[in-house]
Structures are given as structure tokens and as C-alpha cells.
Write a structure and sequence with these properties.
CATH superfamily of the largest domain: Jelly Rolls
Number of domains: 2
Number of strands: 10
Largest sheet: 4 strands, antiparallel
Structural class: alpha+beta
Number of helices: 5
Strand order of the largest sheet: 1-8-3-6
Distance between the termini: 39 Å
Order of helices and strands: EEEEEEEEHHHHHEE
Helix content: 25-40%
Length: 191
């Protein structure tokens, strides 16, 4: 089931893709062909800096969308890589743009979705402004940002993976977090 407003698109606007772990959905510089919905697995959007460091832009999980900005661009601006065996549905850029011009409700739904994403990215910018690594990691876990690996979280919140692991350990030792599995943490309800 696609989220609003994409659920209004015709079946011929949808292309299923099956990906092995490590396989690219698209690469930075590829011509844009659509946006994507994660049916199963997980996709990491990564951009390489001029210095050659990989920066995580977004971790898309089951039920999530990615590459919405490609609707208004000729090329993808990052790599999208399956971090687990995954199935995604590509939604045709041309079909979305046509529907947007012809259907005010669809266009409004798309605008609402993009506005929500802007709000989420502003929250991430606010998180980046927090100086303390422990506080930044705590707030990231509290806001549900630990959706992939700890390395991906570290990149997303602007820390080295070592600093992120250190903060997770300190927060766990202090009782603020509890470890629930390998690379998985949750807030303690009382500490």
C-alpha cells in the first residue's frame, strides 16, 4: 500500500525492483526516473564529499519513501544503496508530474508530504547544533533516528562512529538508554 498521495497513481506508474544487499537503486549523476517506496528491506542514501567521505543523507525503511526531490531535478544527487535484501517500487516521475498538473488534491497531498519532510530535516539541523555528543545521541535515539546501523546514525547526526559508540556506551552505563540488541538501543522509561 503506497502512502498518500502516491496511492492515487495508476498501476502502470509503478515498477517493482528487487535488490540484493549492496546493490544500487541509482547512482549520483544518474538521470532521474522517479521516486521510490520501500516494500521490504532498507535503503541508504549516501553522498560522497569532495574529501571522499561518505555522508548518510537518509535511511529509508519499510513504508518509507526516498528521492522525492528528484521530481524537480534531472539527475540524482546521491547514491541509493540497499543495506539489506530489498524490494522497492519506483513511481514514474512523468506520471507523478502529469497527475500533479491535472489533480489539485494530488498536488496538495504531494506539497503536504514535502513540507513534512522539510520540517523533519529542520529537526535534524537542530540536532546537529547540539554540541555534546552524548546529548546529540540521546536526542537522536529519543526521536527514533536509530533506524539503521550505528555507523549510519553517526553519519546522519554528524559524529564519527567511534564518538557515537562511546556516547551510546556512556548513556547505557548512566542508565539513560538500554541496549535491546546488537546496535539497537531504546530509552529507559525511568532512570
Amino acid at each position: 500500500m503506497l502512502p498518500e498521495p502516491f496511492d492515487l497513481l495508476n498501476e502502470d506508474a509503478r515498477t517493482p525492483l528487487i535488490l540484493a544487499k549492496g546493490e544500487h537503486v541509482f547512482r549520483q549523476g544518474d538521470e532521474t526516473r522517479g521516486v521510490f517506496f520501500v516494500v521490504s528491506g532498507a535503503i541508504c542514501l549516501t553522498r560522497m564529499t569532495e574529501a571522499g567521505a561518505a555522508v548518510t543523507l537518509h535511511n529509508a525503511k519499510v513504508g518509507g519513501m526516498f528521492a522525492e526531490a528528484s521530481l524537480y531535478s534531472d539527475q540524482y544527487h546521491c547514491d541509493a544503496i540497499a543495506v539489506a535484501p530489498s524490494e522497492v517500487t519506483r513511481l514514474s516521475k512523468r506520471s507523478i508530474q502529469t497527475r500533479q498538473r491535472e489533480d489539485a488534491a494530488f498536488s496538495e497531498g504531494l506539497t503536504r508530504r514535502l513540507a513534512t519532510q522539510v520540517q523533519e530535516y529542520r529537526q535534524l539541523l537542530t540536532l546537529h547544533a547540539v554540541k555534546s555528543a552524548n546529548e546529540r545521541v540521546y536526542l537522536a535515539v529519543a526521536s527514533g533516528r536509530l533506524r539503521g546501523s550505528v555507523t549510519q546514525l553517526a553519519s546522519e547526526i554528524g559524529l564519527t562512529k567511534e564518538a557515537c559508540y562511546r556516547a551510546l556506551k556512556e548513556l547505557t552505563d548512566q542508565g539513560a538508554l538500554k541496549k535491546t540488541g546488537r546496535g539497537e538501543y531504546a530509552l529507559r522509561t525511568s532512570f
